[in-house]
User: What shape does this take?
Amino acid sequence: MCYTPIDQRHRHTGNTKQIVGGVVLGPAAGLVICQYSDDTAFYLFGCDAQWKSQSDTWHEELEDAKAQAEFEYEGTSKTWRLPGEL
Assistant: This one.
């Protein structure tokens, strides 16, 4: 659906902790919002520098996923890109 690199335009708020395998992850290098073709929900993925998913959250609406991203990384509401955009 959309993505944004996390860079100097953003502030990691620390409002949430992503824990995977008992380890607290650091800030994501990028965020991606996806929707599977057989699902009505949206998924917010926190990715590493190679865009490999490190964490995810489930959201009923696209705007909910975007709001969660803004809650975790201030500034994302202004930097979302569509697939294929550089």
In short: The CA atoms of residues 41 and 60 lie 5 Å apart. The beta strands are 2-5, 11-12, 19-20, 23-24, 30-34, 42-47, 53-59, 73-74. The chain has one domain: 2-78. The longest strand covers residues 53-59.
